[in-house]
TrEMBL record:
It comes from the Bacteria. Pfam families: 2-Hacid_dh, 2-Hacid_dh_C. GO terms for cellular component: cytosol. PANTHER family: 2-HYDROXYACID DEHYDROGENASE YGL185C-RELATED, 2-HYDROXYACID DEHYDROGENASE-RELATED. This is 2-hydroxyacid dehydrogenase. Gene3D superfamilies: NAD(P)-binding Rossmann-like Domain. Keywords: NAD, NADP, Oxidoreductase. Belongs to the D-isomer specific 2-hydroxyacid dehydrogenase family.
């Protein structure tokens, strides 16, 4: 159907494409730079885009779309979008928070369990056919009942903490300000002191310039040789070279990582480590949640074109 012109940047599922093309005159491009090559006549008419992915969308892209009023982001994190420039140009930005909290928090816990209980090694042990010869898997480590620290107690951080509380863990957290939490949870103003006091460090920060390298070498070292670090936020939130060094030297026991710098071409040093569980940025990657994210993105587009308030505005 030909309604408003809509550029969809990134790779969408069939259910999203069908839904978008039933409402709009849809123009799909694989990334932000490809949008620059669309005909000038079309670009001049486009008032909204559906944005997906992690490659930067900045000033030159906004300049090439002179009528742009909305960037509807598919994802809670909007670090790929230059928000300051968008705001300066009166371009609204929306995202897809909350609908993915459960999945991302589930994956954080799964990474901890996979790391502590050596699930990947256990699976290989069985599949290799060597179980009868090799016998029992070498003993792993107890996961429940220890001390967990959450860096960033936002919506996802809170879901992680609630899950860990059910694993009988003592909950510590670090954020800009203390939050309304159960009285037994411990607030830390300083991430280094928190890392010193916990066994597991979960990173649930918002990505972007403000949090780049926030989990510093000092924080990682403070976690200590029995510590595990789990990151489901953005690779950028950690000093990645310091993390690699700590994993290589055994300064910490291990890590569970769903996010990296330069995805999907991650630092090959990660591939040599046997104390890390690696995942391909799949935190929100369930059918249910991805459908909900697409719907929320489209609901924001519809609200914009109807002249209504955005449902989940960013700026
Ligand atoms: C991605 C995510 O958006 O929501 C986020 O911030 O990182 C993910 O859900 C997903 O990879 C789709 O691009």
């Amino acid at each position: 159907m030909a309604g408003h012109q809509l550029i969809a940047i990134g790779s969408y599922f069939e259910w999203d494409r069908e839904a978008m093309s039933s409402e709009y005159a849809l123009h799909e491009v694989p990334n932000a730079d490809a949008a620059l090559d669309l005909p000038a006549e079309l670009r001049a008419q486009v008032r909204a885009i559906a944005f997906k992915g992690h490659t930067p969308f900045g000033e030159k892209h906004m300049e090439s779309l002179p009528a742009l009023g909305l960037i509807a982001n598919y994802g809670v994190g909007f670090d790929a979008i230059d928000i300051a420039t968008a705001s300066m140009r009166n371009i609204k930005v929306s995202n897809t928070p909350d609908v993915l909290n459960d999945d991302v928090a589930d994956l954080a816990v799964a990474l901890l369990l996979a790391q502590s209980r050596k699930l990947i090694e256990g699976s290989t042990w069985v599949r290799s056919g060597e179980w009868p010869n090799k016998g029992e898997l070498p003993l792993n480590r107890k996961a429940s009942g220890r001390r967990a620290g959450i860096v960033g107690l936002g919506r996802i951080g809170r879901e992680i903490a609630d899950r860990l509380a059910a694993f009988k863990m003592a909950i510590h957290y670090h954020s800009r300000k203390p939050k309304d939490t159960p009285p037994s949870w411990t607030y830390h103003a300083d991430p280094v002191s928190m890392a010193r006091d916990v066994d597991y460090l979960f990173i649930a920060l918002v990505g972007g310039k403000e949090t780049a390298g926030y989990v510093s070498k000092e924080v990682i070292e403070a976690l200590g040789p029995d510590g595990l670090l789990i990151n489901i936020s953005r690779g950028s939130t950690i000093d990645e070279p310091a993390l690699l060094e700590a994993l290589e030297n055994g300064t910490i026991r291990g890590a569970g990582l769903d996010v990296f710098n330069n995805e999907p071409n991650i630092d090959p040093r990660f591939l040599k480590l046997d104390n890390v569980v690696l995942q391909p940025h799949q935190g929100s990657g369930t059918i249910e949640t991805r459908k909900a994210m697409g719907k929320l993105q489209r609901d924001n587009l519809a609200a914009f074109f109807a002249g209504d308030e955005l449902i989940t505005p960013v700026n």
